[in-house]
Design brief:
Blueprint lengths: L1 E2 L3 H13 L9 E7 L5 E6 L17 H14 L2 E9 L10 H7 L5 E6 L4 E8 L10 E7 L2
Parallel strand pairs: 1-7, 4-5
Antiparallel strand pairs: 2-3, 2-4, 5-6, 6-7
């Protein structure tokens, strides 16, 4: 499924994509903030705490200090809210969530973007609430984003 996004969010996603050093072949990422009272978005890159290690090829974990200073600092000091996560997958991997993404990253954000440079594909995954019959059931709706 393909979806249309507003211009500010598309610009933030282009900023996210262009901020990545694809020659590293490591997962990289950051976070998209949304203004509280408008449809304005901005991307804030956050270093992968695993950068420079073999783990970085398959796992993006935001550096806690950088996340606190650059992302949480913006949400506390200004009128911004944390909207989504963004991260890349290394060459050879699709823009689909890994089991680690689903278990670790996706549990914290209702919207997640994954970019695969090899296919130049950006996918958005949005959490869909299910009936409360089983609290362990979760569902994600995926969409391809055209930048």
């Amino acid at each position: 499924m393909k979806t249309k996004l507003n211009k500010s969010l598309l610009k933030s996603l282009r900023d996210a994509k262009s901020s990545c050093n694809l020659s590293l072949n490591e997962e990289q990422g950051g976070f998209i903030l949304k203004a509280l009272d408008t449809e304005e978005y901005k991307y804030i890159p956050v270093r992968n705490q695993n950068t420079g290690t073999l783990k970085a090829r398959g796992l993006y974990i935001a550096d806690r200090l950088e996340f606190g200073k650059n992302v949480l600092g913006e949400t506390i000091a200004d009128d911004w809210d944390l909207f989504a996560s963004f991260h890349t997958h290394p060459w050879g991997c699709p823009a689909m969530p890994s089991s680690m993404d689903l278990a670790e990253l996706f549990t914290s954000f209702p919207v997640n973007f994954i970019y695969a440079p090899e296919s130049d594909t950006l996918n958005m995954f949005t959490y869909i609430a299910l009936p409360k019959t089983d609290p362990m059931l979760v569902k994600w709706q995926g969409a391809t984003i055209i930048l």
